[in-house]
Amino acid sequence: MLSLVFEFGTIALRGLAEGEAQQLPPSCQWDARSGCYRAPAIAYADLVRALVRGGVAYEDKARRYGELAAGARVMREPRPYQTEALKAWRERRSRGVVVLPTGAGKTQVAIMAIDDRRRDTLVIAPTLDLVRQWYDQLKQAFGGPVGVVGGGDHEVRPLTVTTYDSAHMHMEHLGSRFGLVVFDECHHLPGASYALAARLSIAPFRLGLTATPERADGREKELEELIGPEAYRRNIVELSGDYLSDYETVRLVVELSPDEREEYELERGIYRGFVQAQGIFLGSPSGWKDFLMRASRSNDGRRALAAYRRQRELALAAPAKLEVLEQLLARHRQDRCILFTQDNATAYLISRRFLVPIITHQTKVRERSEILADFASGVYQAVATSKVLNEGVDVPDANVAVVLSGSGSVREHVQRLGRILRKKDGKRAVLYELVTGGTAETYISERRREHVAYR
Amino acid sequence: MLTVDLVRARRRKGELVLVPLEGDDRQEALYLAGAYSDLARDAVGRPRAELDEAMGQIEAPPHLQKVADGLRKLIEDRCDFEPTLDLPPEELRREVFRRAAEVRRALGPEQSFDRGAVLAEVAGAKGVDPGALERGLYADLRGAHVLRAFEALPPEALLQLYDDAQAQAVLLRAVRVRAEVKCGAAWGYRQLFAKLKFLRLLHAIEPIEGGGYRVDVDGPFSLFESVTKYGLQLALSLPAVQACASWSVEADVRWGKMREPLVFKLAGRGPDRKLGDDALALPPEVEAFRQGFEALKSAWRVSPSPAILNLPSVGLCVPDLVFERPKGPKVYFEVLGYWSREAVWRRVDLVREGLGVPLLVAVSERLRVSEDVLGDDPSGALYVYKGSLSPRVVLKRLEARWGGAAGETLPLAVAPGGAAAPGGGAKPALVSVVEAAEATAEAGGKARRPARARKGRGKGESAASEVADAAEGASAPNDAEGATKQTNASIGARKGRKGAGALAGRGG
């Protein structure tokens, strides 16, 4: 008898000789390498339908996913548009994209879809922090354990969360184990490598979630093939004023010690001297690249690069900043502070010195999850981090941000401010920015504050 | 292994060409290889971050920075790092940070936070030294992992490794590899195809005029689209290709940011195999058998076999020897020994599913397999031996099964098969072997399927439930589909799948 076998992201049809393919959809092709017909895994549902329609008996060894023992344990009362979205998705054979604006509860739609289909489900999200959030939400909604693949974890369970990167790497093994795949922020999916992950999965049910399916390269059309048609779209005008807390920003200037100042000036002199001697104009768009290139070509250049790094380190991680931080932690010991740094080394330095938990890209999902939960509940009053908490993560209880160092990026700075602005009754947020006086950091600070939020 | 960014290559007329490391540059690279190795040797027992820093202090000439980075990578690959986790770091952190938070919150206006006191308190509660506690706090970070061992290599050998690794790293961006290989004896091919199978790559094999084979290698999904997904596996398969007596490789790569399609070519000879020195390449017990068989002075000639017997839907085998006699069929002989029972069943499948050329498989009695498994199948037989291979017994089998008129019952073995080959009939015998096997696969595939059906896989209730999802998807859901009905359906479907799974298990 004909049998369907999942083989590394494809379905091999064993038991048909070449030319015996009258009943098969066109996605099935003869594979001379292994003497069988073969279809991409994404064609599984089409293939099964064609076989059933044609009355062909077959054995399905491809499908290795089961059904969830129970639905959602806790379900929030859905908003009307969420119910509509689910209905529209179901009407499209449970394959489609739901477009809702940020904050409209896309996760809730996914939980409703999982609850409705009750198939083993894989959720794919763009970043590890979003993976962590999905992990928490699924755990809360469905009660049982939730698997994570990526960020150092590899545990596959009926409900599993992963990143697009990990999905690309592992889908050829995971592709038969889930009947529903949820693509969070699915505008990331089109593109050669991520799209392949969608093609290597047999999941008959697929849900895409995004606020902005449109891509600069126009490849959003591929979503229809990879997930399904746009099933539902809703735009909600957001009144941003109503959603933000009151806040203030405070800039604290610290000074280098005489010894540090001397070393700073010396190193900066070496670096500036090389730049001038080479006639590099750092203000031009290619200036920095130009410097790096020339620095790698001579011993003077390498010395100049080392000098650049040292003077920067002196300014960004000035010992005086740590003393100020000590005072801030004491002053805000009843608050929730996020301590931002430019680099991981400084973040670990702070964690060691002040014995506060830290979240970096090396922190595993479970530990991040636990730290953020304890931070929210008030067990911890501070969390140190470099850049990983910049975006997309909910820390509603945080009301103090301390930027020890950062880039000149306005976007980064606004995002960091945004972490403490989630509205809560009576909350007043404050953002401290620590800047070393008389150093280049002053300019970095000026650049990143070029935003209406700081005026 | 090196990463793609460490490859030194140029584009030249649609081809990707590696930049050779020669002259003064090679001398400089030798110096770097020695210096990095010395540092790694000295760093055993020290944390990774220290080794990283020490290596960073060594200055490479700017134009050789990529070479330096590559050598460092190869040396790091030979380092065995391991965290020291006497105390579980995650747990330590939790306890220390929680206690620190409590202490800080309880501070009065004029009091300052005493870090040492917190560490001492937690250390005391755990009965460990505060210093050990502090060291253990981040022992799981990459930089804190300790170098346990370093597998040193002389600088010249390291540079050789570097050259090979350059080619291998190019294949990380390959979508397909065409290799031409020729092996002195069966083991070279066996090693290659075992490797491809292990890496889950697929291949198409074609004999080359004058000996050897062309093997096109890619992955299952390549049938539908050229993807670099199999790059890592293709790269890992390269050493097995390079072990063949003579080999060349042509890879389609997608290079650079724009993933430009280029061709990458490489050729060479295996390290210690001399072509034509077949006798030496046979395993000792097979060589002893061959000599013993020749001493019998029978009508059969015996020689090392250059053939690959391939039946795409089942697999392939690479015989050790081939027996020939005037006007008779060639009979292939594979010695399986006593390693794997599984391998015996694969040979049995090959014969039953229509390999189409005579194959005699020698199996040690220690595998507890009966010769009756293949019975009097015209194209294959098992020879179960005790102790060592007996030339006399094999000769008897050859005579009984393929001696005399019996040979004529196997036209496929000598005829070029149905497929018309370019160049007409002037092809070497081994070409026809593979063609015959393929022709049989096509013709025999249909005719012989009952053999599989005989295993008796049931249809039944499972078929209906298996389609549940697709069917659900096919029909628009209606609201009449109540919760109760759905639950019943799911239970039925679950049972059905279990049943199917059990059957599949028995069959496979």
Short description:
With 455 residues, chain A is α/β, with parallel strands linked by helices.
Strand order of the largest sheet of chain B: 1-2-9-8-5-7-6
Largest sheet of chain A: 8 strands, mixed
Rg of chain A, alpha carbons:
27 Å
Number of strands of chain B: 16
Mean pLDDT of chain A: 84
Shape of chain B: elongated
Between the first and last Cα atoms of chain B, what is the distance in angstroms?
36 Å
Number of separate strands of chain A: 19
Residues in helix, % of chain A: 25-40%
Relative helix content of chain B: 40-55%
Can you count the helices of chain B?
Answer: 18
* Relative strand content of chain B: 15-25%
Put simply, the count of helices of chain A is 16
Rg of Cα set of chain B = 31 Å
In percent, how much strand structure appears in the residues of chain A? 15-25%
Please tell me about this protein's structure.
The complex is a heterodimer of chains A (455) and B (508). Chain A is built from 16 helices and 19 strands. Chain A has helices spanning 44-53, 80-91, 106-117, 128-142, 164-174, 192-199, 222-226, 240-243, 258-277, 287-295, 299-316, 319-331, 344-354, 365-377, 410-418, 441-448, and strands spanning 2-7, 10-14, 29-31, 36-40, 58-60, 95-99, 121-125, 147-150, 153-154, 159-163, 180-183, 205-210, 230-233, 246-254, 337-340, 358-359, 382-385, 400-403, 428-436. An eight-stranded mixed beta sheet of chain A has the order 9-8-10-7-11-12-6-13. In chain A, helix 4 (128-142) crosses helix 14, helix 5 runs parallel beside helix 6 and helix 9 runs antiparallel to helix 11. Chain B has 508 residues and is an alpha+beta fold. Residues 272-280, 406-467 and 473-508 of chain B have low confidence and may be disordered. Chain B has 18 helices and 16 strands. The chains are: A alpha/beta (455), B alpha+beta (508).
SSE layout:
The complex is a heterodimer of chains A (455) and B (508).
Chain A: E1 2-7, E2 10-14, E3 29-31, E4 36-40, H1 44-53, E5 58-60, H2 80-91, E6 95-99, H3 106-117, E7 121-125, H4 128-142, E8 147-150, E9 153-154, E10 159-163, H5 164-174, E11 180-183, H6 192-199, E12 205-210, H7 222-226, E13 230-233, H8 240-243, E14 246-254, H9 258-277, H10 287-295, H11 299-316, H12 319-331, E15 337-340, H13 344-354, E16 358-359, H14 365-377, E17 382-385, E18 400-403, H15 410-418, E19 428-436, H16 441-448
Parallel strand pairs in A: 1-5, 6-12, 6-13, 7-10, 7-11, 8-10, 11-12, 14-19, 15-17, 15-18, 16-17, 18-19
Antiparallel strand pairs in A: 1-2, 2-4, 3-4, 8-9
Helix pairs in contact in A: 2-3, 4-14, 5-6, 9-11
Chain B: E1 9-12, E2 15-18, H1 23-42, H2 48-56, H3 65-77, E3 79-82, H4 89-105, H5 115-126, H6 130-136, E4 146-150, H7 155-170, E5 174-182, H8 186-198, E6 202-207, E7 213-218, H9 231-242, E8 246-255, E9 260-269, H10 278-281, H11 284-295, E10 301-304, E11 309-311, E12 315-317, E13 321-324, E14 331-337, H12 341-352, E15 359-364, E16 380-385, H13 391-402, H14 429-447, H15 450-453, H16 461-466, H17 468-474, H18 483-507
Helix pairs in contact in B: 1-3, 1-7, 3-7, 4-5, 5-6, 7-9, 8-9
